Amino acid sequence: MTSPVFEHPALTAAASSLASLRAAAGRIGAPDPVAALRHLDCSPPSISASASAVDSGALLVTSASAEFRAGVEHAETGGSAETFGIWADTVDGQYAAAARAAAATAALGARIAAELDTVAVSTSTQVCELAAAASASVSAVLAGDRSAEVVSTVSSACTAVVRTVFAQIASLSLLAAELEPLTSPVVELS
Asked: What is the DSSP string of 65-110?
C-alpha cells in the first residue's frame, strides 16, 4: 500500500510515518490518523506565489496612479480645472486605496503561507511522536494481539493524532478572521 500524497511535504512524510498506526487503527476500528491530516493539508508555496502576484498587481496600480496624477496635473491647467481637479482627486484617491489594499493583501498572503507551513511542520512532528510512542502496541495489534492494553494504546494514539490536528486547525482561526475583510471590495473605482 502506497503512502498518501499531500500538498505539504511534511504531511506526506507524516502520513508515511503513520502507516502502521493507520493499519492498526483499521483492524481495531479506531479513527484513521492519516485521514485527519487531510484537514490540515495546504500548499504554502502556492499561497506565496498568489501573494506575490497580488503584490505585483499593487505595484502596477501604483504606477498607473502616478501616471494618472501626472496627466491630471497637466490637464488642470485647462478650462474647468476646478471640477476636473475634484473628480481627478477622487479617482486618484481610489487608485491609492486600491494599491494599499492590494499590498496589504499580498503581505497577509505571505504571512498566511508562512503560518500554514509552520503549523503543518509542527503538527507533522507532533503526530509522528505520538505514533512512535505507540509503536510497540501497533506492532502487537498488527501481529494479532487484541488485548485491552494494546488496543487501548493504539486507540488512544489515533485519538490523540486527531485531536492534535484539530487543535492546530483551531489555532488558525485568527488567520481566518484576518481574511474576512478581504471578502468585500475595499474600493469601488469610479
From this structure: HHHHHHHHHHHTTSTTHHHHHHHHHHHHHHHHHHHHHHHHHHHHHH
